[in-house]
Design brief:
The chain is an alpha/beta fold and 259 residues long. Helices cover 41% and strands 19% of the residues. It has seven helices and nine strands; from the N terminus they run βββαβααβββαβααβα. The strands form three sheets. The protein has a five-stranded parallel sheet with strand order 4-7-3-8-9, with helices on one face. Strands 1-2 form a two-stranded antiparallel ribbon. A two-stranded antiparallel sheet has the order 5-6. A hairpin with a 2-residue loop joins strand 1 (18-19) and strand 2 (22-23). Helix 1 (39-49) packs across helix 7 and helix 5 (166-180) packs across helix 6. The longest helix is centred in the last third of the chain and has 37 residues, at 222-258. It is elongated and about 75 Å long. Mean pLDDT is 88; it is low at 1-21. The chain binds adenosine-5'-diphosphate and the ligand Nc1ccn([C@@H]2O[C@H](COP(=O)(O)O)[C@@H](O)[C@H]2O)c(=O)n1. GO terms for molecular function: ATP binding; uridine kinase activity. Its EC number is 2.7.1.48. Belongs to the uridine kinase family. It holds the Pfam family PRK.
Amino acid sequence: MADLNNKKSTRLHNGDPAVNGKVKSPFLIGVAGGTASGKSTVCKKIMEQLGQAEMDDTQRQVVSISQDSFYRELTPAEKQKAQKSKFNFDHPDAFNEEEMYNTLQRILKGDKVEIPSYDYRTNSLDFENKLVIYPADVVLFEGILVFYFPKIRDLFHMKLFVDTDSDTRLARRVPRDINERGRDLDAVLTQYMTFVKPAFEEFCSPTKKFADVIIPRGADNTVAIDLIVHHIGEILAATNIAQHNNTVRAAASSMKRDH
Ligand SMILES: Nc1ncnc2c1ncn2[C@@H]1O[C@H](COP(=O)(O)OP(=O)(O)O)[C@@H](O)[C@H]1O
Ligand SMILES: Nc1ccn([C@@H]2O[C@H](COP(=O)(O)O)[C@@H](O)[C@H]2O)c(=O)n1
């Protein structure tokens, strides 16, 4: 399925989601790293190089999901704190671990799932704008704490950690949060110093040791991204050869039975 002769793009072709009536289980990749390290950008590059970025959702064989879609609903008191930048969104308790685990399990079973998007302006899930995940060959799951929860960590077939220095991350986070997430400078810096930085050191950074591949400098590291894309392509090609062989074997044994 993956065209490994094409060095610029290891393009996946839309496959048959079911082989011999069995739904394919996707190759699940976890992408962790500190805030604004470039996790989403790395996922976008991987998708582009696999020839997937421009595809329609139903055709896409590689999809990317954000862990932010699994923040838990806040109580009214927590909402008030969040509006004053006094809620810790970088602590593992801010996430709905069970929902995250159950959703990933369903994705691995090949189910079509719907995931809410996250609204950083209201600090809540947006069920009006859901992302529909159709059965895919490769699923990228990115977030600050995707390797923190052991049960979830164990689901990944490949684990990547985007390692970008903290000055660069803060320099990216400030304009992003002001321009895209409706925050002001004072709120961004207070939240960063009170919660984001200490939680990165306590919960996110220690999970680097679980990564199979550490990507220094994030999306700028084209060599690392090329190697990862090539590896994914090889795995998918091997999976497809095995599935093709199973199909041929099944067809041959049914022909034998008919004679
Ligand atoms: N290599 C890079 N060079 C310059 N800006 C970048 C780079 N990677 C990401 N960014 C910018 O930094 C911000 C955070 O990047 P993003 O990929 O969303 O990080 P994360 O998903 O880790 O929060 C975005 O505004 C993005 O455009
Ligand atoms: N309501 C929220 C929810 C999360 N955050 C911050 O987002 C960061 C995670 O997203 P990245 O794209 O940066 O990985 C995390 O550090 C939270 O502090 C927020 O500010 N408000």
